[in-house]
């Protein structure tokens, strides 16, 4: 799915090296800095200390090899809407293939009534140029002097194509984009207005939601450009529902909190630092500024190296939520991400991409867990508290509870391979080799081409297809067995929360996928896609849309996973890797994801599972995309297929109150009947 850039961004970042030399890159490095502090009094926007941000950001960029001649500043009265857009035009015109382009904005952020239905909360985030009016209830104003997120996203998309294939684009926004009550620091300037601008002209918002329904997933203004776009990362100073406080630098000057954090961590980024790691450092720097509950956000291609389009293969890791003492650590995710009691994890320095090639500084075991949190006892010797707080944790051995899996090894497999399998499975406490009533079958492929099939004996779709001649075939079978054992426990996982109640609806359509484009508009009668038992029955290639509605009292972060018939786990909503607040659903609102087509693929039972949680959850560690389906599943939710889901909540096998709720729909994908 593609959507316009939002300002309340997401994801995470990393870094590994220890040297602090500037980044080297084949292309040029260009930057546009917009800083507005001297807002006109009649605008309603208060004065800010944005002028003090300019030397911080400029100095940080120059420490990374930017030439001062390639850094343009648009400030105060020059930073009107036209002035900012002209600066973006300059940046795009000046940039070329393989260049790095940076856009930094320091100033007010605001919200305004959404004009195209692509926002769950009903408001677009906007930059506030010099001279933009701050009247919250203007009768004839539609946002013409502000810069909407959709418009900025469209211009950045053009820039990304301009610097492709080897370039990159970084956007940093030192502002806030929505309002929650300011908690503390009332004496410091706040870079945003808490109340949104309400547009009430019905002629202007005719394209918007009707009867409380949003239709989302992208703005019409975003161009569809040919070719590959360069990586984009966006970092903002606060969440979409928070104001952004100014901080105080070492000289006692008021400055932007993100600008100050960038000045402290960006010069230290080296050739191995990724944006994921850089963001972790930004978070640590901002945590020391006494900003209340303000939290920076990031989204985009976070696993690329800073000021480079080079991607890094990042292994999934688990984050530390809190260090209680020198031997007890709370982890984010809990049973939702497979952290059951007995699971063993190792702690590494933040920025570790592959734990197999690094050395851990501590190890621990999960001693208790609920859906949202796993409590870990850290082994001796005890690491420093600060090291634990900043660490990334990788699971070294999952625990499976009382889930012994009987495995049958087909005698038609080569004798040497069978022996290697037996020896390997002997080290897996959850598995035991049997000759009768197995849960898993390991056998040659029916076509006789020597491919091993790991399949469930009870007609559950196959877990893995493995080439026996591959170097890791035995270990991959072992991982598939572990993954299946995990799935048998986690597929019973149900969350319930009395105040969070999000339901989901499936909408088949006449649309068809043509290349990467979804074409067509008409829906088809619902009953025509129901089977004899009134369950959903689709054919391979059928396209469907999804609508969800928050019927509860509280807002919730919504994530929808597809649990495929072949064991693939894909994230349908929001975009994989996007852990921004874009998927935060207000209560009593529905949302139709209309510009993203999902289509039935592998024959068998597919389960759509919706997770509505109080806190944002990054499901990246449990996703297995279609192109990886031939790999043995080893992550916790690989086959999280619910029992008898049919569009209602089933009885919960694992109850976790106060975390969120789940909702599931089962789809039977069948081959069309021949006539």
Instruction: Name the helicity range.
Output: 10-25%
Number of strands: 34
What is the helix tally? 8
Average the pLDDT over all residues and give the rounded result.
Answer: 76
**Strand line-up across the major sheet:** 2-1-3-7-9-12
Overview of the structural elements:
- This protein is α+β, with helices and mostly antiparallel strands.
- The chain contains eight helices and 34 strands.
- The chain has a six-stranded mixed β-sheet, with helices on both faces. Strands 13-14-17-16-15-18 form a six-stranded antiparallel beta barrel.
- It is globular, with a radius of gyration of 26 Å.
Question: Characteristics of this structure?
Answer:
675 residues; 14% helix; disordered N terminus
């Amino acid at each position: 799915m593609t959507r316009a850039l939002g300002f309340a961004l997401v994801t995470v970042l990393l870094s590994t090296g220890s040297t602090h030399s500037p980044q080297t890159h084949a292309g040029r490095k260009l930057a546009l800095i917009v800083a507005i502090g001297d807002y006109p009094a009649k605008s309603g926007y208060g004065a800010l200390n944005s002028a003090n941000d300019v030397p911080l950001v400029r100095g940080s960029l120059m420490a990374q090899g930017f030439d001062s001649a390639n850094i343009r500043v648009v400030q105060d009265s020059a930073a009107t809407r036209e002035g900012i857009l002209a600066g973006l035009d300059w940046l795009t015109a000046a940039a070329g293939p393989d260049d790095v382009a940076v856009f930094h904005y320091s100033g007010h952020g605001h919200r305004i009534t959404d004009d195209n239905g692509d926002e769950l909360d009903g408001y677009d985030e906007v930059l506030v140029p010099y001279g933009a009016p701050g009247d919250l209830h203007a009768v004839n104003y539609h946002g013409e002097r502000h810069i909407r997120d959709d418009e900025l996203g469209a211009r950045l998309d053009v820039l990304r194509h301009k610097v492709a294939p080897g370039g990159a684009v970084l956007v940093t926004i030192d502002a806030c984009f929505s309002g929650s009550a300011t908690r503390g620091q009332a004496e410091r300037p706040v870079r945003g207005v808490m109340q949104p601008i309400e547009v009430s002209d019905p002629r202007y918002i005719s394209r918007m939601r009707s009867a409380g329904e949003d239709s989302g997933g992208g703005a019409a203004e975003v161009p569809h450009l040919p070719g590959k776009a360069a990586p984009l990362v966006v970092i903002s100073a606060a969440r979409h529902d928070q104001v952004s406080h100014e901080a105080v630098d070492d000289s006692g000057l008021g400055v932007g909190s993100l600008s100050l954090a960038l000045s402290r961590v960006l010069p230290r980024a080296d050739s191995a630092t990724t944006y994921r790691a850089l963001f972790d450092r930004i978070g640590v720097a901002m945590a020391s500024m006494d900003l209340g509950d303000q939290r920076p956000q990031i989204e985009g291609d976070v696993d690329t190296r800073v000021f480079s389009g080079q991607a890094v293969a990042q292994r999934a890791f688990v984050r530390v939520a809190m260090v209680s003492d020198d031997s007890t650590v709370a982890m984010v995710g809990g049973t939702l991400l497979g952290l059951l009691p007995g699971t063993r994890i190792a702690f590494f320095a933040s920025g570790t991409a592959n734990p197999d090639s690094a050395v851990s500084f501590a190890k621990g075991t999960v001693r208790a867990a609920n859906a949202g949190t796993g409590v870990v006892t850290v082994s001796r010797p005890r690491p420093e508290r600060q090291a634990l707080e900043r660490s990334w944790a990788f699971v070294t051995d999952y625990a499976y509870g009382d889930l012994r899996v009987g495995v049958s090894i087909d005698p038609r497999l080569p004798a040497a391979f069978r022996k290697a399998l037996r020896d390997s499975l002997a080290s897996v406490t959850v598995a035991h080799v049997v000759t009768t009533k197995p849960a898993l079958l390991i056998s040659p492929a029916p076509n006789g081409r020597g491919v091993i099939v790991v399949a469930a004996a009870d007609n559950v779709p196959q877990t893995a297809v493995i080439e026996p001649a591959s170097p890791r075939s035995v270990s991959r079978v072992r991982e598939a067995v572990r993954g299946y054992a995990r799935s048998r426990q986690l597929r019973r996982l149900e969350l319930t929360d009395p105040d969070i109640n999000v339901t989901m609806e499936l909408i088949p359509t006449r649309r068809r996928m043509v290349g990467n484009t979804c074409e067509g508009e008409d829906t088809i009668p619902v009953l025509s896609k129901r089977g004899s038992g009134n369950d959903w029955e689709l054919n391979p290639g059928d396209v469907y849309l999804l609508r969800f509605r928050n019927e509860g009292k509280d807002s919730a972060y919504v994530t929808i996973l597809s649990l495929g018939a072949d064991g693939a786990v894909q994230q349908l909503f929001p975009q994989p890797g996007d852990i921004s607040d874009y998927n935060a659903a207000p209560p009593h609102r529905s949302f139709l994801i209309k510009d993203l087509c999902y289509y039935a693929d592998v024959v068998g039972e597919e389960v759509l599972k919706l997770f509505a949680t109080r806190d944002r959850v990054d499901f990246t560690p449990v996703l297995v995309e279609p192109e990886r389906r031939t790999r043995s599943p080893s992550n916790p939710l690989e086959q999280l297929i619910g029992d008898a889901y049919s569009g209602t909540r089933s009885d919960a096998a694992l109850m976790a109150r106060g975390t969120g709720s789940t909702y599931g729909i089962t789809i039977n994908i069948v081959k069309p009947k021949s006539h």
